[in-house]
């Protein structure tokens, strides 16, 4: 069993160490129709043979319809970027797997790094059918300040713009919250790639008095060869660098009142979590901290054994996390050489799976594994787990395992990770031979232990719902954290 996970670690290390070089890269290079057809056909064949949840949300005949329509659209030569956005992204969206996405080539990303492109000038916070300004690239404009509500762009209503963008982004089932965040963080780039560029934009907005008005904004055009400059690096001690790097992934802060602590966990992969958990829960017990906020709002997942470890520190009862974990294949053949590290991944699949049932290869390390609460430094105080759209993958497994337990509350918004389960565990890149687009896909299907058919397509709902707050957007405070702290202080007063 240990050897099996040694192989998995080699795969992950190899993934992180892979690099590519580029010389004379031309982003405007056009690929001929036969080249695009070859890339498209390969992607379809691999998805149909290997992807574990391809038909989870749409039946085969519906996916075939999307595949066939995409292939028929390949009538003219396209750039890598056009092929990505016009053809591949909308089809990948239809799989409704948050771990399945299509990315531009490594050469393109290296070429684009630190470059500033012409774009729509406003960054917009988007949720449901609402768009509000959070930043303006046009420093001379005095109309569109933070919080200004945008009703339409070029006569297209806000809700239609958001819905159109959702059509190009991956997600688990129909849990949109994660994509509202992605749209908010990347609105100018997404608008450029999906709607194209305009010299001017007609904007309908609501002014500070509540009156709906319209005006025109110019396209944001950076200076020629504009790049993002970085500040010169200062010499920092190695220990300080390690501490700061780890704090990006996890931290524990005890409030000056001594009444509660906040554990920030932005990943289950990085930050030396085994040592961090041991040290943190020891400190909480020693200082008698009886209220803990665990912030998973930006935790996209990571290693399941780390999320399981946190469950052991928090859970009040023994729990099971995974009902089943299985792969459709035991090898990537005959497509091994198209994967970024196909040979070593195929070895990993052979060692990670050891039973075959119903035509599937099962992974037994986490399937039906009973997690027994720790005795030493187990946390018995009240716990508030903050969740949101980016709460995904392994962090969703944790949230589902502790949901409903005595003294534990989930607070915030629906997770982006699937409540019923997801595709994940081992995720690899298929590199298309001509355009070099990278199709990221999982190799295992995981069904959570506490699952119901009514949960399919949904994220995990919070016990205490705290939606996006317009007031918090305007004033710049953390509404969800504030609500959690208010609950703690009110309970202390009782």
Task: Outline the structure in words.
This protein has 494 residues and is of the alpha+beta class. Among the domains are: 122-218, PDZ domain (Pdz3 Domain, Roll); 238-428 and 442-493, 2-enoyl-CoA Hydratase, Chain A, domain 1 (Alpha-Beta Complex), CATH 3.90.226. It has 15 helices and 22 strands. It has helices spanning 2-17, 33-50, 60-72, 80-93, 106-112, 158-166, 177-185, 187-195, 238-249, 273-286, 304-314, 342-352, 394-402, 470-475, 479-493, and strands spanning 30-31, 78-79, 101-103, 122-127, 130-136, 149-153, 156-157, 200-206, 212-218, 250-254, 261-265, 291-295, 319-320, 322-327, 353-357, 360-363, 370-371, 382-387, 408-412, 421-431, 438-448, 464-465. Strands 3, 14, 15, 16, 20 and 21 form a six-stranded antiparallel beta sheet that branches. Strand 6 (149-153) and strand 7 (156-157) form a beta hairpin. Helix 1 runs antiparallel to helix 12. The protein is globular and about 65 Å long.
The CATH superfamily of the domain at 238-428 and 442-493 is known as 2-enoyl-CoA Hydratase, Chain A, domain 1
Whole-number radius of gyration? 24 Å
- CATH secondary-structure class of the domain at 238-428 and 442-493: Alpha Beta
Provide the CATH architecture of the domain at 238-428 and 442-493. Alpha-Beta Complex
Q: Any idea what the shape is?
A: globular
Span between termini: 50 Å
CATH fold-level label of the domain at 238-428 and 442-493: 2-enoyl-CoA Hydratase, Chain A, domain 1
Largest sheet properties: 6 strands, antiparallel
Residues in β-strands, percent: 15-25%
Helix count? Answer: 15
Mean pLDDT: 88
């Amino acid at each position: 069993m240990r050897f099996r996970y040694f192989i998995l670690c080699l795969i992950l290390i190899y993934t992180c160490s892979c690099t590519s070089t580029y010389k004379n890269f031309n982003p405007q290079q056009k690929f001929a129709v036969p080249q695009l057809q070859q890339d498209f056909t390969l992607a379809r064949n691999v998805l149909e043979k290997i992807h574990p949840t391809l038909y989870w949300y749409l039946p085969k005949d519906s996916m075939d319809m999307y595949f066939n329509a995409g292939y028929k659209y390949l009538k003219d030569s396209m750039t890598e970027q056009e092929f990505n956005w016009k053809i591949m992204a909308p089809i990948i969206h239809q799989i409704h797997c948050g771990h399945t996405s299509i990315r531009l080539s490594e050469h393109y990303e290296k070429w684009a790094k630190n470059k500033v492109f012409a774009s729509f000038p406003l960054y917009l916070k988007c949720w449901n059918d609402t768009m509000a300004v959070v930043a303006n690239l046009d420093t001379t404009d005095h109309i569109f300040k933070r919080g200004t509500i945008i009703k339409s762009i070029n006569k297209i209503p806000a809700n239609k713009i958001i819905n159109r963008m959702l059509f190009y982004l991956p997600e688990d089932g129909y849990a949109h919250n994660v994509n509202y965040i992605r749209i908010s963080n990347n609105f100018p780039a997404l608008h450029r790639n999906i709607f194209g560029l305009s010299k001017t934009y007609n904007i309908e907005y609501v002014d500070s008095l509540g009156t709906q008005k319209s005006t025109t904004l110019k396209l944001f055009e950076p200076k020629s060869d504009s790049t993002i400059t970085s500040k010169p690096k200062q010499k920092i001690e190695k220990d300080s660098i390690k501490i700061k790097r780890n704090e990006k992934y996890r931290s524990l802060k005890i409030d000056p009142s001594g009444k509660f602590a906040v554990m920030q966990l932005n990943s289950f992969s990085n930050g030396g979590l085994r040592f961090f958990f041991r040290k943190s829960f020891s400190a909480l017990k020693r200082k008698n901290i009886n209220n803990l906020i665990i912030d998973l709002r930006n935790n996209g997942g990571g290693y399941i054994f780390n999320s399981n470890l946190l469950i052991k520190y928090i859970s009040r009862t023994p729990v099971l996390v995974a009902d089943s974990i299985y792969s459709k294949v035991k090898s990537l053949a005959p497509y091994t050489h198209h994967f970024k590290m196909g040979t070593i991944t195929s070895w990993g699949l052979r060692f990670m799976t050891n039973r075959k049932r119903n035509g599937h290869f099962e992974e037994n390390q986490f399937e039906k594994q009973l997690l027994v609460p720790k005795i030493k430094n187990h946390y018995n105080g009240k716990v508030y787990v903050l969740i949101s759209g980016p709460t995904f993958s392994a962090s969703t497994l944790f949230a589902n395992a502790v949901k409903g337990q005595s003294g534990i509350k989930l607070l915030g918004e629906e997770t982006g990770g699937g409540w019923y389960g997801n595709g994940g565990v081992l995720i690899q890149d298929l590199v298309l031979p001509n355009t070099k687009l990278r199709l990221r896909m999982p190799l295992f299907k995981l069904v959570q232990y506490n699952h119901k058919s009514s949960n399919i397509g949904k994220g995990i709902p919070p016990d205490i719902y705290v939606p996006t707050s317009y007031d918090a957007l305007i004033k710049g405070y953390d509404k969800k954290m504030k609500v959690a702290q208010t609950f703690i202080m009110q309970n202390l007063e009782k």
